């Protein structure tokens, strides 16, 4: 049991932006039992020798070998990678919900970094950064021309080091120059509030080690404020994943005890596993004390639920959505998720370096493979009333080069899906959408979730739902004919 939790500790991770791989930690690389291809290894040695003797300038041995390892692993799929000292350190810090930086959630707008929200009590918050601020320069470097990932890396760094930001703010006539000292930031993975009497919003932004405990505190606070809760919206939009115990714990909070949450399958014996709604699967083996979920009110198991997802919902968030959908515990609403359904194993090569290697696929309780497909919502609802907004611009797992295939649904209607997504991207580009504040007054999908919980009509997506032949067969059986509405009824 303990080895399973150790080996499949992480399912997708992104700290400020982007989707990273699904991962497991292990102490050391496994020894290979297969016969080494000696002829190919000789060629590798020959190329190494040629570079050392014939290249235009001297190259360090370490650089050549590191790049060879990196290229070999990266050629497999989008989520396998070599982790150098810095990358491995950042990975471990991210799972604990902390990193060194400024403390802002960011996006891109017109080539600049846009502040979505400063994290409360962070250096950026204390320096006066506001939602909507555009960062135009990082020290002396113009932001135009940088990717979001490159800009984020520049804003992160060592504790107690300074960075000067040039800020464009709508109400200011001239740019603001703000110097901020980087500090360790602890990310709040769970947020909540009572939206209106009887209805609550619970957002998991990323699955981290403290997520289950944080969720329990937030739910108890909601029930203390609103004892007779009539409906709950679990918001997993743009949640890139994180630690697997967090996903199991969040699922288990709303499902019966001991039910299967997710299973994995790969070549290694340890990769063939099933994870259940039990304490040992969502708490650390080093944790002392009682089951954290035992502190939740019993009503949380039966409160009507809607789960909001979008193209940015990946990996661990897809596990939660898939489990709640399979058990019909909640209505899944929004747009088709990212489709990150593979597990990555972290094999340490040295105390400071590791290889992240894809070792398995994961499956919902009903055996559905999410890889390269994602979770299809029960009710398809766009990001805005007149289209899918910025969500239409996002890529999915199936768009990534060398992505792992879906091994249980060969008929993915790939061409139709690609055509539909391309139409949505073009429409979003034309309308020049701005980033959405989840949980805010203009959150259209949240408003539709509330309508559904109240039994009111829901404005469904204007884009048709693309189903595989397998799904159509299931729907025809349910409806008794082939005339069922693929989007479901308006409720």
Automatic annotation (TrEMBL):
Segments forming a coiled coil: 403-430
Annotated Gene Ontology cellular component terms: outer membrane-bounded periplasmic space
InterPro entries named in the record: ClpP/crotonase-like_dom_sf, CtpA/B_N, PDZ, PDZ_sf, Peptidase_S41A, Tail-specific_protease
Every PDZ domain range: 88-156
Region (Disordered) residue spans: 449-491
The keyword Coiled coil belongs to this UniProt entry's keyword annotation: yes
SMART domains: PDZ (SM00228), TSPc (SM00245)
Gene3D superfamilies, alphabetized: 2-enoyl-CoA Hydratase, Chain A, domain 1 (3.90.226.10), 2.30.42.10, 3.30.750.44
Bias type Gly residues, positions: 481-491
NCBIfam families given in the database record: prc (TIGR00225)
Protein family: Belongs to the peptidase S41A family.
Name of the protein described by the UniProt record: S41 family peptidase
Organism from which the protein derives: Noviherbaspirillum cavernae
């Amino acid at each position: 049991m303990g080895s399973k939790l150790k080996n499949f500790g992480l399912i997708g991770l992104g700290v400020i932006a982007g989707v990273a791989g699904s991962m497991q930690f292990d102490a050391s690389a496994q020894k290979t039992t297969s016969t080494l291809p000696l002829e190919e290894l000789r060629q590798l040695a020959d190329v190494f020798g040629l570079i050392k003797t014939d290249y235009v300038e001297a190259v360090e041995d370490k650089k050549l070998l590191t790049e060879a390892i990196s290229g070999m692993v990266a050629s497999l799929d989008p989520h396998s990678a070599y982790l150098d000292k810095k990358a491995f350190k950042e990975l471990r810090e991210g799972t604990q919900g902390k990193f060194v930086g400024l403390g802002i959630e960011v996006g891109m707008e017109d080539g600049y970094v846009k502040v979505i929200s400063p994290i409360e009590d962070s250096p950026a918050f204390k320096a006066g950064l506001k939602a909507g601020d555009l960062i135009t320069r990082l020290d002396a470097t113009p932001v135009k021309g940088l990717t979001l990932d490159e800009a984020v890396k520049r804003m992160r760094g060592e504790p107690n080091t300074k960075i000067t930001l040039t800020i464009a703010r709508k109400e200011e006539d001239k740019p603001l120059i703000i110097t901020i000292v980087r500090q360790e930031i602890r990310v709040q993975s769970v947020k909540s509030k009572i939206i209106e009497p009887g209805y609550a919003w619970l957002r998991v932004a990323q699955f981290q080690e403290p997520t289950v405990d944080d969720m329990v505190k937030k739910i108890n606070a909601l029930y203390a404020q609103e004892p007779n809760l009539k409906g709950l919206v679990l918001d997993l939009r743009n949640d890139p994943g994180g630690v697997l115990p967090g996903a199991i714990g969040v699922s288990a909070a709303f499902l019966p005890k001991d039910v299967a949450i997710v299973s994995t399958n790969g070549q290694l014996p340890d990769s063939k596993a099933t994870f259940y709604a039990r304490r040992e699967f969502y708490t650390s083996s080093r944790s002392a004390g009682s089951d954290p979920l035992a502190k939740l009110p019993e009503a949380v198991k039966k409160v009507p639920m809607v789960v909001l997802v979008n193209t940015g919902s990946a990996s661990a968030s897809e596990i939660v959505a898939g489990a709640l959908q399979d058990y019909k515990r909640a209505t899944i609403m929004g747009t088709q998720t990212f489709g990150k359904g593979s597990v990555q194993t972290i094999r340490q090569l040295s105390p400071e370096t590791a290889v992240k290697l894809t070792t398995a696929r994961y499956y919902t309780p009903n055996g559905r493979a999410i890889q390269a497909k994602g979770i299809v919502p029960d009710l398809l609802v766009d990001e805005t009333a007149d289209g899918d907004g910025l969500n239409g611009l996002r890529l999915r797992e199936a768009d990534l080069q060398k992505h792992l295939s879906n091994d249980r649904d060969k008929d993915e209607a790939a061409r139709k899906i690609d055509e539909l997504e391309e139409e949505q991207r073009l429409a979003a580009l034309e309308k020049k959408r701005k980033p959405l504040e989840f949980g805010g007054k203009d959150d259209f999908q949240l408003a539709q979730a509330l309508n559904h919980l109240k039994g009111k009509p829901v404005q469904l997506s204007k884009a048709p739902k693309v189903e595989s032949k397998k799904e159509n067969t299931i729907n025809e059986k349910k409806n008794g004919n082939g005339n069922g509405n693929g989007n479901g009824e308006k409720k």
